[in-house]
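Troubleshooting: if your tokenizer reports a length mismatch, compare against these two reference records.
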Amino acid sequence: MPFPGRLYLLFTPDACRLDPWHTLEQALGGGVDLVQWRSKREDRAGFTRCRTICRAHGVPLLVNDDVMLAVRSRAAGAHIGQQDMPAPTARKLLTTGWLGISTHDPRQIAAAAAEGADYVGFGPCHPTATKGYEHGKSAADIEAAVAAAAQHRLPLFAIGGINRDNLIGLRRLGVDRIAVSASILQADDPARAAAGLRACL
């Protein structure tokens, strides 16, 4: 079965402009079909509420970094970065749960495929304050990443400073899945922001 999800919301309650639970509900109603719990502080009550909302909408929830939380909570999976838990260890702990890995070049994409990733995040495609990147990837870099992911049959989510205006350019480079944060979490109308992004995919 193809990996689900085109519009991946990286959900940090503290990063929301409006009430975070209203924001999450609106984003899911607007077309978000995959969510990552990305709180920078321990918030078990918040995680439980996020999981409940996602389940009510039938949308898979993954956990950023904390593989054991993903396992204990029976989340859909976990996402790790290059400096987090080793991918083979995460893959073993998750058993059948999904494993996503952050990548920054084709070599890392190939390694992720070899280590059992179910999808990769690739970026930053544009400058982003969320992670402190002042520069994005070049068009050639993005095209090379898309090609590498296709070669290894890995779904690729472009990430980093993506909004409706620059998504059109990414689509021309072959991107068909995106992961976003601020463009929805900081929006005055999260449902409209999500729907706008979804319409471009």
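Reference record two:
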Amino acid sequence: DNYSLFYGLVDKIFRGFFQKRLMPISRELINFKIGLNKDLINASKLVSKGKLDEALILWEQIFSDSDNSYYARSISAFNIGMYKAIIDKDFDGAEIYFSIYDNLEEERINDFIRF
């Protein structure tokens, strides 16, 4: 429909533009997703202690293990994307992980619908 077409197009055009120009006021305002996976819980504990580099290692392990659920892998992809955008200022790398997050979420929803 026209609504989806317009906003999908606007999103593609302006996402990169705004991503590279908007900076958080402080690290305390960064919101990472939390999940029920044991490793995701451990990663959120590390984030609360300010150990973001160690949390990144856990998210990368969860994401790279294809035996993990779409849910755990998608949350990890989102968090890696947040880390890359906010901490590393690697906006292109972040965009890749955000796209993977979107794809994994779509697969998870499709599996749920088929179930």
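Descriptive notes for reference record two:
- Residues 1-7, 21-26 have pLDDT under 50 and may be disordered.
- The helical segments are 2-19, 38-48, 52-64, 70-86, 91-114.
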